[in-house]
Amino acid sequence: MDWVTWLIWVVKGFFLAMFLLGGFAYLTWYERRALARIQVRVGPNRAGPFGLLQPIADAVKLIFKEELTPTKAYKVVFFLAPIITMVPSIIIAAVIPWGPLEPPIVLFGYTITLHVADINVGVLYLMSIASIAVYGIVLAGWSSNSKYAMLGGLRSTAQMISYEITLGLSFVTVILLAGSMRMLDIVEAQRAWWFVVIQPVGAIVFLIAVLAEVNRAPFDMPEAEQELTAGYHAEYSGMKFALFFMAEYQKMIVVSAIAATVFFGGYLEPFPAFLTNISWLSWLKVSQTPYLGPIYMLIKIVILLFGMIWVRATWPRVRYDRLMAFGWKVMLPLALAVVVITGFGILLAQELDDRVLLMVIPAASIVAGLIAIILVNRALTRKRILSYEPR
Q1: What pLDDT was estimated at residue 273?
Q2: Which residues touch 130 (CB under 8 Å, ≥6 apart)?
């Protein structure tokens, strides 16, 4: 392996890290503007045109802000916890493909692939790196030597572990449909149909689970400011707080990229085949213009990020006991049902040698989802009636 190959890896890794760091800054602007639009407000509009310089102003403010360390904090762990939280949010993106292998992109006689790493167990890599982030939050809560921060850390442990099981089962659904754990194979398997079409309930379960994994509303219990005065990062200030802030928004970008890859066709064109088969529109195909792959991915990521912002603007925070009950009593059984239905549908299509029978999967999954909604509604209605009965 020559030095140029190493240089290409370093440059691609650098650009990916810069994309996530720049994306974090302007995702805050995007969120504030979108929330303002939804809530009939103006949003940031003073710093630069349309408020585009606001993230830079916020960065300067945080850099010069005084950093405080509690006297009785466990200082080494207190210092390392934000780093342990932030680093996985960058390196997890290494296996996400941004373009196809064919046709190759040749630059100065070298073939450039639009991903940092192509490993045959990409899904396992995603799950293993995602599970590391919980350590940073737990250690931040414990090392602060504060009751509020400790409660936030404990909440995050229970919540993230609970929803990681559902997330893992959602990945199992994707692996069954693609027949591979390699991220490029998962995208290429969606050339005929995106997996969100074949398994819509599985996609919804996945999206809910990642919301809980990144501690976004309505699942932002580890940092519930009304109860825990910011939770696990209550004792952090200055750039240490900024690292937690960066990690949350970078994880939003990364999980949107993962969702786009495993359920929404990844870098594939978001147009129906009959449109791209027209001769003068054929250049829109990624198979003909591989440079369009990152653009298509970016469009899908922006749409999914808007979905997260919309949920934050719409849904109130879930009560903690209901959050955990929802994870264990609704999401986990539904994710298991989705895996069983997917496996059954694939087996049926293979045994009868008819791919049309794959449509059994979305039909049965929607039925399972409706049953789950009816059962949840019945349970909530029963609790409401019991709460009004005289004692």
Answers
A1: 66
A2: 88, 92, 164, 167, 213
CA distances from 9 to 12, 104, 232, 303 (A): 5, 16, 35, 29
Rounded Cα distance, 201 and 361, in Å: 10
Query: What is the pTM (predicted TM-score) of this model?
Result: 0.92
Mean per-residue pLDDT pooled into runs of 10, the chain (391 residues): 79 89 89 91 86 88 83 87 89 91 77 86 91 84 84 81 90 94 93 91 94 83 64 81 87 94 91 67 80 91 94 86 88 95 91 83 93 88 70 53
Cis peptide before 218 (omega within 30 of 0): yes
Rounded to the nearest 10 degrees, the angle between the axes of helix 360-388 and helix 332-351 is 160
* CA distance linking residue 299 with residue 304, whole number of Å: 9
Distance (Å, whole) CA 365 – CA 176:
15
Of 192, 188, 174, 327, nearest to 259 by C-alpha is 174
pLDDT at 387: 67
Q: How far apart are CA 336 and CA 342, in angstroms?
A: 10
CB 97 within 8 A of CB 114: yes
Instruction: Say what the pLDDT of residue 224 is.
Output: 63
pLDDT value at residue 368: 94
What residues have CB less than 8 Å from 388, skipping those under 6 apart?
Answer: none
CA 256 vs CA 102, 125, 134, 298: distances in Å: 24, 17, 19, 10
Return the pLDDT at 125: 93
Under DSSP, the state recorded for 107 is E
Under a CB-based contact definition with an 8 Å cutoff, are residues 117 and 182 in contact? no
Where helices occur in the chain by DSSP H, the ranges are 3-38, 54-64, 75-91, 122-143, 147-178, 183-188, 195-198, 200-213, 225-228, 238-263, 273-276, 292-314, 320-325, 332-351, 360-388
Query: Which residue has 């893992």 as its token pair?
Result: 168
* Residue 354: both structure tokens together: 């008819």
Of 103, 122, 96, whose CA–CA distance to 13 is shortest?
96
CA atoms in the 13 A half-sphere facing the CB of 261: 27
SS3 101: coil
